[in-house]
Amino acid sequence: MPTYDFRCKHCELHNEVQQSMSASTPACPGCGGGMERWFHTAPVVHGVASSGREQAIRSLPQCGKGCRCCP
Predict the structure, then answer these.
(1) What does the chain look like in DSSP terms, one character per residue?
(2) Domain that holds residue 19
(3) Rounded-to-integer distance, Cα 30 and Cα 12, Å
(4) Are 37 and 9 in contact (CB under 8 A)?
(5) Is the residue at 8 inside a domain?
(6) What's the rounded mean pLDDT across residues 10-15?
(7) CA 50 to mean position of chain CA atoms
(8) CA distance 56 to 25
(9) Contact, 29 vs 20, CB < 8 A?
(10) 32-55 pLDDT, tens digit each
(11) Number of domains in the chain
């Protein structure tokens, strides 16, 4: 079951909640207000799913001028 970060819309309390993807947004444990899912970092991808990332890194220019001249 994934863990999500939530931030309260009212008191800005940050909270981690482990719940299913289809579960409704929880209420704030501090003030009882509405919370929103908070994305503060990009997820890390491992295994087969990371192959697209590796290809993208290899396709970047190596010399900084937009060409593929550097080893």
Answers:
(1) --EEEEEETTT--EEEEE--TTSPPPBPTTT--BEEE---SPPP--GGGGHHHHHHHHTS-SSSSSSS---
(2) 1-40
(3) 10
(4) no
(5) yes
(6) 89
(7) 15
(8) 34
(9) no
(10) 999 998 776 566 666 666 666 666
(11) 1
Phi-psi region of 32 (alpha: psi -120 to 50; beta: other; left: phi over 0): left
Between CA 42 and CA 58 the distance in angstroms is 20
Q: Which amino acid is at 11?
A: C
Residue 6 placed within a domain: yes
Q: What is the pLDDT, as a whole number, of residue 8?
A: 92
- The answer, yes or no, to whether residue 71 has pLDDT greater than 60, is no
Across the range 15-27, mean pLDDT stands at 88
Q: How far apart are CA 16 and CA 2, in angstroms?
A: 10
What is the C-alpha separation between 4 and 15, in angstroms, rounded? 8
Classify residue 11: in a domain, yes or no: yes
Any domain includes 60? no
